[in-house]
Amino acid sequence: MSRMRMLIAGAVIVAALGAIGFWALSAPSRLPGDAIAAVSDGAETRGERIFWAGGCSSCHAEQKAEGDARLELGGGLELETPFGTFVAPNISSHETDGIGAWPLVDFANAMQRGVSPEGAHYYPAFPYASYSRMNPSDVADLYAFMKTLPAVEGNAPPHQLGFPYNIRRGLGLWKLLYFRDEPVIALADDAPSAAELGKYLVEGPGHCGECHTPRDMFGGTRYGDWLSGASAPVGDGKIPNITPGGDVGGWSETEIADYLESGFTPDFDSAGGEMVSVIKNLANLPPEDRAAIAAYLKTVPAR
Amino acid sequence: MKFFAIAASAFLIGVTAASADPIEDRQALMKERGAQMQVLVPMAQEKQPFDAAAAMAALETLAANAASVDVEALWPEGSMGGENDTAPAAWENWDDFVAAHDKFKADAEAAVAANPQDLDTFKGVFGSVAANCGSCHQTFRL
C-alpha cells in the first residue's frame, strides 16, 4: 500500500469513527420508567395551574388570543430567531393533528427530555430544558388537563432552518453540552418556603430563564448569568435583568407579584412584547404562586 | 360641557407637548397615561376605595390625552434610536398601529361617556380601556 493510500484509508477510518461517535453521542435518551408518575385523582383540576405556570398558550395558541381562545392550542406561531424560523406545532387534543393520541410516557419524554414519540430530538425553542426540572406528578397533572382542552384541526408548517441547524440529530450534541435537569440556584437553608416554591416555578414550568438568561453562540443557556437579561430571542427588544441587581432590583416583592398579575410596573408603565402574553398566563395562578416567584427573584445572585 | 372640558385639556396637552423631539413628546404622553393608571388601577383592583369623582377626573384626562395624539406627528418615520421604545413593527404595520391608537381613544371616550358611579360599572369600562395598554405594547413596544 502506498503512503497515499494509507493516508486515504486513515482519513476514511477517522471519518467513519467520527460518524459513529457522532451517532452514538447524539442519540436521544428517554426518561427512566420510574421518572413517570401515574395520573391520579384530581389531576385534571390540578393540571390547570401547571398549564398557566408553563405558559403553553404563549406559543401554541393564536397570537393575542384572549379568554377561552388561549386554550385552543393549534400552533402556527412563528418564532424568527438567529437560527431560523421555528413554528409552534399543534399540541391540542386532536387525535391526529395534535397530541390527543399520545400516552403519558410520550408526553413526559417530550416535556422532560425533548424527545418525540418517534425518537427524534426537539429543538430547544420548546423549553424542555426547563420543563425537565418539573415534578413527574405535575407533568402527569398537566397531561390530564390538556386532554380536556379542545381538539383543533390542522398542522402547522415545518420549521425553516438553515444548515447545520436543520440537522435534528445534531441536537443530541447540543443536549450533551447544555441540557441539565438539576436546579440552577442553591437556596440558603434559611430561605423562606415561598422562595423554594418560587424557585420551582421559575426554574421549572415557568421557564423564565429561557428568555431572561443570555445564551452563547450555540443557544446554550449561560447559567452563570442566570436571569441577568438578554437580547430578545424574537424581534428587536431587550429582555430585562430580573435579578436584584437589575431593573426590578428596587421593586418590593408585592410590586413584583402585582406586576405579574396586572402587567403594571410600580410607576404604572405597562409590560410590552412577549411579557404581555406571559402575564395573561400568570394572572390565572393563585396569588401565592406569584408571591413565591417574587420571593425567589429576591434570593437569586445579583448581576 | 364635558366635551368642552375634554377639548380644552386636549388643547393644553397639545400645546405643552409640542417640543422638538418626538421621542421626548411620546414619553411625556405615556407618563401622563401612567399617572392616570396609578389612580385607576388600584381602584379597579379594590386596593383603594372607589372614588367616582377621582376616577372620572382620571378617565377624562386619559380621554383628553388620547384625543390629543397626532400619530403621524409623534411617530415620524425613522424616529428611533436614543431613548426610543417604539418597536420597528409600528412603522412596518402602520395601519394597525394607527388603529390601535384609535381603539384606545374610542374606549377612553366610551368610559367617560359611561360616567361610572359604582365600582362594578367602573371595573367594566375601565377594563376595556386598560386592555389597550397590553395589546398595543405587545406588538409595538420594545
Description:
The complex is a heterodimer of chains A (303) and B (142). Chain A is mainly alpha-helical and 303 residues long. Chain A has 12 helices and 5 strands. Chain A has helices at residues 3-25, 43-54, 56-60, 104-113, 128-131, 136-147, 171-178, 193-203, 209-212, 253-262, 274-282, 287-297; strands at 78-81, 84-87, 160-161, 230-231, 238-239. In chain A, strands 1-2-3 form a 3-stranded antiparallel sheet, with no helix packed on it. Chain A is globular, with a radius of gyration of 21 Å. Chain B has 142 residues and is mainly α. In chain B, helix 1 crosses helix 3, helix 2 (22-44) runs antiparallel to helix 3 and helix 2 (22-44) packs antiparallel against helix 7 (119-140). The longest helix of chain B has 23 residues, at 22-44. Classes of the chains: A mainly alpha (303), B mainly alpha (142). The A-B interface holds A 64, 235-238, 262-264, 267-274, 276-277, 279-280 and B 30, 34-35, 37-38, 41, 45, 85, 87-89, 133-135, 137-142.
